[in-house]
Each structure stands twice: as C-alpha cells, then as structure tokens.
Amino acid sequence: MKKRSIWAVFLIVMTVILSLAACSQQDAKETAATKDDKKVFTFSWSGDIGDLNPHTYFPNEFYSQAMVYESLVYYSEGGEIKPWLAKSWDVSEDGKEYIFHLRDDVMFSDGTAFNAAIVKKNFDTVLDNREQHDWIELINQINSTEVIDNYTFKLTLHNAYYPTLQELTYVRPLRFVAESAFPASGDTFKDGLTAPIGTGPWVLKEHKENEYAIFERNDHYWGEKPKVDEVFVKVIKDGESRVLAFEKGELDMIFGNGVISQDSFKFLKESGKYETKISDPTATRTLLFNTNRETMSNKNIRLALQHAFNKDAVIDHIFYGIENKADTLFPQNLTYTDVAVDPYEYDVEKAKALLDEAGWKTVEGKEFREKDGQPLQLELLLISTDNIQKSIAEFAQGDLRKIGIDVKLTSQELNTFWTTAFDGNYDILFTATWAVPFDPHSYLASITTNSSGGGPDYYALSGLSFKKELDARIKQVLLTTNEEDRIQQYHKILTMLHEEAVYLPISYQSNIAVYKKNITGVNFLPQEVEIPTTKIDRIN
Amino acid sequence: MIRFICKRLLGAIPSIFGLSIITFLLVQLIPGNPVLTYLRVSNIQASEETVQAIRIEMGLDQPLVTQYIQWLTNILQFDFGTSFISKRSVLDEIMLHFIPTMQLTAVAFILIIVCSIPLGVTSALHKGKWFDRLTQLFAFSSVSLPTFWLGFLLMYLFSVQLNLLPVLGKGSVAHFVLPATTLALGYIGTYLRLIRAGTIEVLKEPFVLYAQARGLNKRTIVWRHILKKAASPTLTGLGMSFGNMLGGTFIVENIFAWPGMGKLLVESIVNQDYPMIQACVLLLGLAFVLINLIVDIFCGLLDPRIRLAGDR
Fold first, then answer.
1. Residue B54: alpha-carbon gap to chain centroid
2. Backbone angles phi, psi at B249, to 5 degrees
3. Cβ B255–A418 below 8 Å, yes or no?
4. Is the N or C terminus of chain B more exposed, i.e. has fewer CB atoms within 10 Å?
5. Looking at the predicted complex, does its ipTM rise above 0.85?
C-alpha cells in the first residue's frame, strides 16, 4: 500500500511535467514549417513589440510601429520632408493652416480605404489625450482638424509653428490605424486597439509575447513592396547571447545602438565572416552639469572639466573608434546645427589654471584640491546597468583625480536614476540627445519645460543667470517664419550653450549593423529608430 | 496517513498568511515614489493634481492596514489587480511568465534527481576509488562555476561549435537542454555529495548487515533499504532548492532568452510596479510552501517515524 502511493504521486508529477513540456513542443513545429518554403529574414530585438499601437508608448517599440504604421509625410536624408501618405500639401501665408492632399491608392491591410475621414479620426483620438503627448509641441499647437473632401485633410494651428511637418514624421503618435482597429469607445490610448491594422509594408502575422513576432508582407501595400516574405523578430535581451545566436546562424542581422558590446562588434568585424556597417552620427552622448550645485555654478569649474576630459582616449579605448568624438551638443550634419565654435581641447595645464582661478587650490600632502577647507568632490550619476556609462565614468574618475578632483560615482537603477536626475541630486549626469527627427528643435524645447516628457536639462540649467533669456529664445525660434532668421537664432542658442560649457559632449552615437554575407540592402534610414526591413533581401 | 497530510496542510496556513504580510510590507520599503515612476512611464506630466489623482486611483492614500486588507480580500478572489506599467491584469501576465519558468525549473529538478542519486550512491559504494574522486572533482567544479559563465560556455560549445542544440529561445524539447543543464549543474554537485555522505552513514548501520545476513542481493539492499533512509535529508534540501531555483532563474532566463518569471520580476522591481511585485513574490512564496509541503509528505511516506510522530 505504502509503496503504491509513492509511485502514484511520482506518476502524477511526471505526467504534469511531461504535458507541460509537450505544450511547448507544438509551437516549435509550427514555426519550423513556415521557414522552409518562404524567404524569411530574422533579427533580434531586446524587448517585446508590445500591443503594436501607434498612439501609445511603452511597451511599444519604435521599429515595429514604423513597420506597420505610416505618417502623412516622410523624414528623408538631410531632414528633407517628402510626400508619403499625403502626396502634396499647401501651407497658408500665415503658416497656421496646412492642407494635405492624400494619396487615393492607399489601403489598410484589412482592405479598407485610407481617406481624410480616417485621418481625422486618428488625429482626434490622439488629441483627446493631449496631456499624454504634450512633449510634442505640435500637439499643443493644433487648433482643429477638418475633412475638406474624401482625400483632402486640413490642420489648423494656433500659431505658425515651423516644425509641424517634421513632427508629423514621428513614429508616434500621429500615425494611422484602420476603422476596424478602433475599440468600441473610440479611445485608442485608454482602451487599445482591437487589431494592429495599418497601411505600412508589413502586417503582424503571429506574436508570442516575449518570444517572437512574425511580420508578413502587406499585399495591399501602395509603395515599394518588401523583398522578403516574412520578417521574424526574436526577443533576446542579452547582448552576448545575441552574438552567439548570430554566430550559430539563428539570426541574419544584428542592428541598433548598444545592442552588443563594443568588444563583440570588433570581434565579429575582424572575423571577416560577416558584413559590418556603422551609421552616420545620430544622437550625442553627453555629460550634463547641474548649475544649481554650488561648485558647478562656477563657470571656471565647468570649463576646467571640459579641458580635463580626455575624449580621444575614451574614443580609442572604450569605443574602439566605433563612435566619433563629439565637440558640439548636436552633430554638425543636422539642419541648423552647423555652428562655428571653438572646441574645448584636452589641456590639463589649462584645466589646472582654471581651477586655481576658481579658488580651488592644491593642498600640500592632500590628494584633492580644497577651497575654504572643503575638498573638491563632484558626484557623477550613472545608470547601473549601462556598461558604457560605467567605463566612461571610471575613466573620467581616474583622469580628474590627476588634477585634484574627487569624482564620486553614484550608480542607480534606471527609474531611480531618472527620479534623481529630475530632482537634480547630482553634479554631473550622463544623458543623450534624442537624434533626428527630434534634434535639435524637440530636444531644445524640452530644456524650456519641467515636464516629465522633457528632460532633466530644465532643472540642471536653471542655475544659469540667462536661463529665462535662453528659454524665450528657444520658444521664439520654434515660431519663426523666416529661414534666415531661424538659422541665426539657432546659432545664437547653440553658441550660448557651448560658451557656458554646461554640456560636455563625448561622442556621437551610431547604429551598427552586422549581417551575413548573403543579405543585401542593409542601409541606415534617416530616423535612427527605423530598421530598413523593406529594402533587405537575402540571396540563397 | 490522511490525518498527517491534513495536519501538514493546516500547518501551512499560518506560513502563507505570514508570507502575505511580509510580501506586502517589503514592497513598501522600496525607495522611490511609484506614482512618479508610473507617470514617467506613461508620459504624463507630473503636476501636483495628477500625482494626487493617481495616488487615490492606486489606493496609495489609504492607511497601510486598509491597503493590506483590501489587497488580501482581492487576492482571495484571485484579483491581483492591474499592473501599473503594462496596465494589464497581473494574473494574466504572471501566468504567461510563470509557466515557462515552472517548466524549466521542473526539468532542471528532474535532472538533479536523475543525476545526483545514482552518482552519489555509486561513489559512496566505491568510496576512495577513482570513480569517487572523479565525482568529487565534478562536484567541486560545478558548484564553483558562476551560472552566467557556464551558460555561455555550454552555449558556445554545444550550439555554436558542435551545432547540436539550439542557442536560445523556447520551443522544442531540445531548447530545454542547455538552460536546464545550466540551472541544474551546481545543484547536482551539491546533492551528489549529500547523497554520498548519507549513504556512507547508512552503510554502517546494523540493518544493512542484517539485510546482508538475510542473503538479499546487493542491488535490493542499496536501492530499497539504504537509499530510502539516506534520501530523507536530501529530499528536504531539494524542496528548498526548488523554491530557490524558481526565484533564481533570472540569469539563466536572460542568457537563453527564456520568456520567464525572473525577467518579469526584475523589471517590475525596476519599474516599482507594486501589484506585480507583490503577486510575483507571493506566488513564488506559495510555490515554495507547497513544494515543501509535498516534500514533507514524501518524507512521511518514506519514514514511518516522521508520520507517526505527527499522529501522536
């Protein structure tokens, strides 16, 4: 009797375990079958695609939203705005009215027509949740939306806001879902979509949360059709695992910024077995100085830090030349950012002289400089899981110790980091600009507002005597109507920021791509968050 | 026997109750303000009014005791609330992640039992011989290998170089091999040594001599008499380890892109997603208590003394 009951329990446990394992076995067979007869392109991403809703943010990913949904106008090379779902547009004299002439050959992936009525419906649901999107100034500027006729849509603004078209290119939230995708309430932000139906080149075919997503070609697509039949995106969080999966051949491409370590990139490149590419600069990796702290409010200290930081060494030893040295807050290749300023050169002697001038003197027998008996200590805040920030921070700590500055590293979890950053509890902070199409205008606009959709810059810069003037200038430039005037104003703003030395730009970030030799068409798209899935092809 | 099981079940209730209190209170100790995090993740401007409104919506304005009673009432009705971050039902999210973790842990657990018992017993029977030395070497090295390193090593060797197994992800039975091995290897080393020690102890007992005198063959003596006695302490340890493994799969899941609970839990902690953290911790705690209950019952089955002591 006793013996039998032991066996009974054992059998039950085994049955449960085996049936659990069997459940998962079925899924694998299905995915294997689809791979045989179709041209499938596989890559990986660190997060799941979420609910694939263009009107919301977390946990959506930019790249997948951009694969399925499209905008009225397209942000192309060099910031030029090109027709997309709108084939042309007219802007009124006063710059407040935009009339878009829509393409008449566009269909959603469910076969329904794309027209002015659905454009208005999408705009209106976004505008119903204005406060969620207020980081985009355009949302605040929109006064009304109007259907003129079946393929003509009119947007009326409060002011002549010059980046209107540029902000219409953003991946979210001003992109379009079909009528059938709207929930019963009509509010896509609060109630989500019934199905992810867009006009884009790809349609979501299958999605297993936190494991993979499969997109297939949209046969109704109006534009250039994708070359491969399906795109298979695996969720892989760890960079080293991603490299091994790629080497094994389970991935066709590794793409993005910070997706693998610099060492791995170098290793894959030098192996000669794969193709590698590095994009033009996108965003700027920079340090931000908190001018509210007493030490940092002194311009000489900020200047000393600029001269004491050895950027070349960081580029050579931490980035292996994958990222380029940055001397200005924005890369020079963006519109309005090619400002002529003298970069701060690495000059230790000059840094020492500046510190002496600021009253921080070296004390006999002590490692760090002092002023009124207080040692010179600066707190550098970084994200604990970001290995690049950690390496740079340690490097800077060593460099600055040589000139008598004690850098204290505070590393925090992502969310705690941002809370601390917004509260201004640091001297130096790691941050980055937002890349095109957000740079420079959206990033600069964020400096003027204390919104959570903005950045920590508002508080950090508020110790500057001319902060009010700076904010006024930024707000003004966004409403300029004259191109010449705009260029001048941007140059003035960027020069002011450079001369006050509140940012210490380190490097310009780039996207990297590592792909198999039988993959073609891997080129970087103007918006760094987009992946060139339509152009990619595989030669078997 | 039934009385013994009932008694154990009743005994688990205070632990579960205590667990719920600890779970609830621990979350309150996390530094930072969950309302602000929620607002930032949702892209909502943090004005004084919105912060207040969200606090009330989340029920964070109530006194702790009220919050706890409310929470307990809800979970008794299987309502774990809505995640602050993904805004989906916590129960749905957890089930989605819990099953893969449970599968992985269960497979690793079987691996531990299947490997450590025969290895442990055999090395005890060949104490001091080459086989014993070999397992000893294996035990020491497997215990001291860090999981993340071992994971990559196995992945590189068996999938990239030898092309025998898939690198990562979940799907076929083959996908279980590497993550389960990575998870199990350290424990195999530990239990192998435990079982070896237990067996050597038992070998000296008079009943073994008696069994030999009765003319029973060696196999029966070892597998039926000795193992039964040597297994009890190991079984208790295994129960503890199962709970540990459930909660500690994060590294393995991260390396092998396994869609499990570890990732969910760590992300919830980073995002200060109170309902999610509470539910995860409670569920892991419950699994821990349940497994130990089962182990207790097993021990009772194996050893009448434990069972009878409970009856008295």
1. 35
2. -80, 0
3. no
4. C
5. no
